[in-house]
Amino acid sequence: MVAFVAFCSGGAWAQGPYRVTDTWKIGGDGGWDYLAVDPQSKLLYLTRGNHVMVVDTSTGKVTADITGLKGTHGVVFDTAGKLGYITDGGANEVAVFDRKTNTIVKRVAAGTGPDGAVFEPVTQTVWAFNGRSKNATVIDANTQQVVATVPLPGRPEFPVADGKGSVFANIEDTSQLVHIDAKTHTVLATWPLAPCEGPSGLAMDRKNDRLFSVCDGKVMAVVDAKSGKVVATPTIGNGPDAAAFDAQNALAFSSNGEGTLTVVHQDSPDSYSVVQNVATKQGARTMALDPDTGKVYVVTADFGPRPAPTPENPRPRPSIVPGSFVVMVVSR
């Protein structure tokens, strides 16, 4: 079933509404976090705890598995088409891998709990945002050496780069957004995101300098990247964890753990309309967008009973049914 609220006129909806067009049964044990599409090979990288699965998006089949990791989160790619970078929060490292062979070629020490990451093209640096040490590790992509550690005002979540020398990142525990100069490694501004609370996923419209933070309470905060002003707050689904922006069709996406993908149309840089809530599946709260095809990939699995709370784990997650992990393709 596909639920949709309204449609904007014009070419953006000439192909009709979004729907789940394919489901790939990937299987494998364990949970998952972020996923990413290699912009050159179009391979889809899925972080799965102590390994990263690589999926051919033309067939939906697993073609490689990057192992020897402890607690993977994000995957980013250099602009030279040679190397990729995996944040390994369990090892407090960034694993550098060869994109042709999908083998790890180097491990770089990061802060505590590296999670979200971004490749900054102007300075040719990799930024790993460390959730527990509340800072960012900056790695020179030419030497694979750490060149800076940037203190942050709280626990960082997902970052983006504007392609012009700036990096932005959500600060989850303070409900803020930071603007960082990638050349000087300094925080230029810290902006409140109210009414957004607990921001996680972040995306950017680089042409119009707009940032999209997805938050608790079913809120997407649209922020002017020059002034830090929140210019719009469209309503999204519950439990989001990732955001994306399709520049070709002026659409922002929020993948929501309740089992929906919210599609928001950019009517103007300061005006937004929710045009669709696509039914996906419970737990599908992370995603990746292929900007060339417009396809959105979300992942989830079937869930079993939730374990009883313990003092060490007062809010346990439900168990995952073995072998039930899937990739869902959302397109028009």
Secondary structure layout:
Blueprint: E1 2-3, E2 19-25, E3 35-37, E4 43-47, E5 52-56, E6 61-66, E7 72-77, E8 83-88, E9 93-98, E10 103-109, E11 114-120, E12 125-130, E13 135-140, E14 145-151, E15 156-161, E16 166-171, E17 176-181, E18 186-192, E19 202-205, E20 210-215, E21 219-224, E22 230-232, E23 240-246, E24 251-256, E25 260-268, E26 271-279, E27 287-289, E28 296-300, E29 326-331
Antiparallel strand pairs: 1-26, 2-29, 3-4, 4-5, 5-6, 7-8, 8-9, 9-10, 11-12, 12-13, 13-14, 15-16, 16-17, 17-18, 19-20, 20-21, 21-22, 23-24, 24-25, 25-26, 27-28, 28-29
Order of helices and strands: EEEEEEEEEEEEEEEEEEEEEEEEEEEEE
Number of separate domains:
2
Number of helices: 0
CATH architecture of the largest domain: 7 Propeller
Please state the average pLDDT score. Answer: 94
- Assign the structural class, choosing from mainly alpha, mainly beta, alpha/beta, alpha+beta, or little secondary structure: mainly beta
Q: Tally of extended strands?
A: 29
Which CATH class of the largest domain? Answer: Mainly Beta
How much of the sequence lies in strands comes to over 45%
Shape, per Cα inertia axes = globular
Task: Write down the Rg.
Answer: 19 Å
The description of the largest β-sheet is:
5 strands, antiparallel
Poorly predicted sequence stretches spanning 5 or more consecutive residues: 1-14
- Euclidean distance between termini CA atoms: 14 Å
